[in-house]
Amino acid sequence: MPLPAPLVGIIANPASGRDLRRLTASAGLYSSTDKASAIQRLLAAFGGTGIGQVLLPSDMTGIAAAVLKASHGPAALNQHWPAIEILDLPLSQTVADTRLATRRMVERGVALIAVLGGDGTHKAVAAEAQDVPLLTLSTGTNNAFPELREATSAGLAGGLLATGRVPASIGLRRNKRLVVTVPQQQLAEWALVEVAVSPQRFIGARALSRREDLAEVFACFAEPHAIGLSALCGLWCPVSRQAPHGAWVRLASSAEQALLAPLAPGLLQACGITASGTLLPDVAHRLSLASGTLALDGEREIEFAEHDTPTITLDHRGPLSVDVEAVLAHAARHHLLAVPRGHRLHPANPC
Q1: N or C: which end of the chain has fewer CB within 10 A?
Q2: Residues 314, 191: contact at Cβ < 8 Å?
């Protein structure tokens, strides 16, 4: 008896790619139309790999409506898109919407969740996803965690993994994270990419991209081609996603050497580097400042004062994500995308 076709979720943050950095830098805009189009490409790939049903949350910007309309068109029929169920959720147009949609998908037993957004969106989903794997697609401003790739190839990888045709041991990776604790506030949060320490004492505008607002940056991984605050580590002391350790840099305008780094798309600033080092796993690091704010994955979230003792700890208990390249390489070696003559997508089979 054949197994039932897998159920997957898709979460596209309507607000990703639209924040303040569009005014302070030259970041591109990801419209709702762009996101709906990316979801349609995902659905074509999911349909081709045997996904039976997709959960998609409602939104106020027309993404779900556009996808649902397209699902009744000839392209969806010819490509055998999976059935779409719209999750009708109460909307606040805040990160709470993303968290609620994730919880509902986990309760429904999805095999994976495809996420369209930046670092902040992925962090919100990861906080609720438990061990449901994330298929990451970049549509935000800070896009260090979700790697840039085409939705069609990502969807093929996600579909092959969700249907069990590629083993989890090959197609999934466990990500690092940075755990931030402030015992005096009974607070514990975590970041997927980096934590920046700022001398600014109040959160104010959440986005952080000015060199004078930076004192330290701690990074899980830091790639030389990254855009955002992790680029300060990536261009000074790079560390890969697969490495067991992380990296940190300390900054001051009085430093002998300054590093030219892209702190946001189109925003290059020379930042003085006074010290750097390796971030070892499971070792709590104290901060160099007595008071200020902490930005998690590019946005200030935590204020701390002289009586607080924040620490930052790297660990290997972050979310699971689909390794698209590894899945597709395995599929190529084993011809997993080959279809027999009787398959509905074979060219000899009439539509």
Answers
A1: N
A2: no
Closest C-alpha to 220, from 116, 111, 321: 321
Comparing C-alpha atoms, which of 179, 144, 165, 180 is closest to residue 263?
Answer: 144
Tokens of 270: 């020379």
DSSP 8-class letter at 212: G
Residues 6+ apart with CB under 8 A from 130: 106
pLDDT in tens, the chain (351 residues): 456 789 999 999 988 655 554 445 555 567 899 999 999 999 999 999 999 999 999 999 999 999 999 999 999 998 999 999 999 999 999 999 999 999 999 999 999 999 999 998 999 999 999 999 999 999 876 688 998 899 999 999 999 999 999 999 999 999 999 999 999 999 999 999 999 999 999 887 778 888 999 999 999 999 999 999 999 999 999 999 999 999 999 999 999 999 999 998 889 999 999 999 999 999 999 999 999 999 999 889 999 999 999 999 999 999 999 999 999 999 999 999 998 877 777 787 765
Strand ranges (E), 5-92:
7-12, 53-57, 83-87
Sign of the dihedral through C-alpha 13, 14, 19, 22:
positive
Whole-angstrom Cα distance, residue 294 to residue 186? Answer: 15
* Best CA proximity match to 24, nearest among 258, 181, 207, 166: 207
pTM of the model: 0.91
